[in-house]
Amino acid sequence: MRGLVFSFSLAKYAGGCGGRSPPRVASAQAEAKSSQRMPLDREPLCTLSRSPMTESPETPDTVPPAPQPEWRNFYGRRSGKTMRASQKTYISEDLASLTPGGISKEDNPGREILDPGTIFGKDAPLWLEVGFGGGEHMVHMAARNPGVNILGCEPFINGVAMLLGKIRAAGVSNVAIWPGDVRDVMEVLPEGCIAKAFLNYPDPWHKRRHHRRRFVTPGYLGALFRILAPGAEFRVATDIPNYMEQALIEAPKAGFALIAHQATPWDDWLSTRYEQKALREGRVPDYATFRKP
């Protein structure tokens, strides 16, 4: 996942006159552009699920409107390289029917609490994947567990398109997609409604000053704790040692109990493309299971 769950561009700074303009002009240009730079809280951020980032601009016909979260974002660009024609077809034909209503601030400005059963049209245990990346883990879990409903959140539209293709191929029907910020989902779900949650290979936010943008921080963990049912599992998989260290510190503070911390994955685990990339590059996967008492 890089996974219930949202265009940005950096200001370019003047790099000097390059011999074409007097230094005074270049300095003025640099000052003008520097003054346009956004504060840290509004700067573009990486995607939660380590989605590939390029300079390709997003287009209104493929990227749903981005919600306006109140907390610091833990994602940034919502699109990457140009999607294939088949992926654009998945977005145009399949996404709307798999996207729950009542989650966006436009649909639900009063933030009324939803009935989870209405999302899928049936009552069943509800699982949540935060940042499903390319969707392989989510589809794998849906196929293995047809008796549960799985809601996945992912702001990166290319990842959403990849998931939609996998859903078609697998023929699973017990999934729903929020192509945006998981915080919008957590705001409108009732307390204690999630039976299991997954956070697989989230964006590591390596720089110390960016650690506050990680999902394993008090605000996000507290919101997740509220919607988890008593006894529900929260699984974390990462290849970044200090990310897991932060999870092991912050999750108990939010009320979670640590059940297991291990170097081997769960029995029902499907190794994702991000895990395979980590292994190729010599990083060691790390897994933790927390539980809401």
From TrEMBL:
S-adenosyl-L-methionine binds at residues 129, 154, 181, 203. Its EC number is 2.1.1.33. Pfam families: Methyltransf_4 (PF02390). Keywords: Methyltransferase, S-adenosyl-L-methionine, Transferase, tRNA processing. The keyword Ion transport does not apply. Residues 48-59 have a biased composition (Polar residues). Residues 17-70 are annotated as: Disordered. GO terms for molecular function: tRNA (guanine(46)-N7)-methyltransferase activity. Transmembrane segments: none annotated. InterPro entries: SAM-dependent_MTases_sf (IPR029063), tRNA_(Gua-N-7)_MeTrfase_Trmb (IPR003358), tRNA_methyltr_TrmB_bact (IPR055361). It catalyses: guanosine(46) in tRNA + S-adenosyl-L-methionine = N(7)-methylguanosine(46) in tRNA + S-adenosyl-L-homocysteine. Catalyzes the formation of N(7)-methylguanine at position 46 (m7G46) in tRNA. This is tRNA (guanine-N(7)-)-methyltransferase. The lineage of its organism: Bacteria, Pseudomonadati, Pseudomonadota, Alphaproteobacteria, Rhodobacterales.
